[in-house]
Amino acid sequence: xxxxxxxxxxxxxxxxxxxxxxxxxxxxxxxxxxxxxxxxxxxxxxxxxxxxxxxxxxxxxxxxxxxxxxxxxxxxxxxxxxxxxxxxxxxxxxxxxxxxxxxxxxxxxxxxxxxxxxxxxxxxxxxxxxxxxxxxxxxxxxxxxxxxxxxxxxxxxxxxxxxxxxxxxxxxxxxxxxxxxxxxxxxxxxxxxxxxxxxxxxxxxxxxxxxxxxxxxxxxxxxxxxxxxx
Length: 230
Known about the structure:
Elements: E1 9-13, E2 16-19, H1 20-40, H2 51-71, H3 79-94, H4 108-130, H5 132-137, H6 147-182, H7 187-229
Antiparallel strand pairs: 1-2
């Protein structure tokens, strides 16, 4: 039993490996890009709208609503990044319904890359909205002594974000595989549905936490500025 898709090697030459993580990651990207192109090439504002366009608008509106609830701000500037994270992780997990497929989110390298994207996005959005001086100043609040602790906090939450997603997806896949091997034939379908549900929930949790981290880098200085003005 393969615990992680990293261990499945399709092609190797010296130190270069083509493993299941890379193959299935590009498969997910291809599906999302092709699906987006097929749906958006016939967008219309006049009824009747296609079922695919209606479905896409519902998904976008739901993601936007979650962004507004988490950040208390308009969703427009966050939607491309947060929406891409959610759709990628969700699609990566939903495709596990196919037997030969393994979710790239079950690889620590994939979840670390996603968490690193969040780590970079936090200061980018913070600097964009409150300015570089105000954003950097929050690292030495309330005193400069807190600088190393605030830096450690930034790094530790990025690490926890990666490990949380990796651990939940890997453990769920392992649990489903074990139960399928020991229970009657009726239960594989139930366990597969359980795995899909967990995958969607983990995609939601990851993206909401990402939005909370981004919003915290902006709201700290906005609250501080508001207090100074008052």
